[in-house]
Amino acid sequence: MSDFQLPIRPRTISKRRRIAVVASRFNSAFTDALVETCCKVLTEEGGDVTIDLHHVPGAFEIPVAVEAVARHSQVDAVIALGVILRGSTQHGDLIAESVTNALQTTANTHLVPVIHEVLLVNNEEQAAERTMGDKLNRGREAARAALQTIETMAKITKSAPSASL
Ligand SMILES: Nc1c(NC[C@H](O)[C@H](O)[C@H](O)CO)[nH]c(=O)[nH]c1=O
Ligand SMILES: CC(=O)[C@@H](O)COP(=O)(O)O
């Protein structure tokens, strides 16, 4: 009897990546800086990467667009970029909390990495440091977190039994 076994279906890990960026326009000087740096780093460090950029008015609208991307597009990751400046009421904190929870839910529901850089800051100085500076740049951080998480997810799914994929 032959001990020949059919090879299991190869799961080719394509190095071609598609990443969606969902960014709010509110506080656009800061959010535009986040988008610019994030896309630059994705292009420089991500290899063969296609970026789908989507804009929404404010941070509160980011999760619905991220969920739509997760449901309807074949992306390897979604990056959420926004800047919430604390005002004199609780409004900013409420938005930030709801965005955080919604992004986590989308990531875990669709098993797609969602990178959360919807920043909640106390003032413009903190916003500038994080969006325009070199030391704390959250746009750069977002791009690198997306690329690293894509690699990790690929390793995890590669080592999973094919029936569970
Ligand atoms: N104050 C900020 C907002 N506010 C707008 C909301 O996000 C939202 O668009 C509005 O409540 C309509 O649903 N958005 C930010 O991104 N940053 C802010 O500082
Ligand atoms: C997050 C906001 O919409 C914020 O600008 C609201 O400001 P305020 O708390 O002063 O009403």
UniProtKB/TrEMBL annotation:
It catalyses: (2S)-2-hydroxy-3-oxobutyl phosphate + 5-amino-6-(D-ribitylamino)uracil = 6,7-dimethyl-8-(1-D-ribityl)lumazine + phosphate + 2 H2O + H(+). One of its GO terms (molecular function) is 6,7-dimethyl-8-ribityllumazine synthase activity. One of its GO terms (biological process) is riboflavin biosynthetic process. 5-amino-6-(D-ribitylamino)uracil binds at residues 26, 59-61, 83-85, 116. GO terms for cellular component: cytosol; riboflavin synthase complex. Its EC number is 2.5.1.78. Pathway: Cofactor biosynthesis; riboflavin biosynthesis; riboflavin from 2-hydroxy-3-oxobutyl phosphate and 5-amino-6-(D-ribitylamino)uracil: step 1/2. It comes from the Bacteria. It is an enzyme of class 2 (transferase). The keyword Transferase applies. The active site is at 91 (proton donor). It holds the Pfam family DMRL_synthase. Keywords: Riboflavin biosynthesis, Transferase. (2S)-2-hydroxy-3-oxobutyl phosphate binds at residues 88-89, 130. Transmembrane segments: none annotated. The keyword Iron does not apply. Catalyzes the formation of 6,7-dimethyl-8-ribityllumazine by condensation of 5-amino-6-(D-ribitylamino)uracil with 3,4-dihydroxy-2-butanone 4-phosphate. This is the penultimate step in the biosynthesis of riboflavin. Belongs to the DMRL synthase family. This is 6,7-dimethyl-8-ribityllumazine synthase. It comes from Sulfuriroseicoccus oceanibius. The gene is ribH.
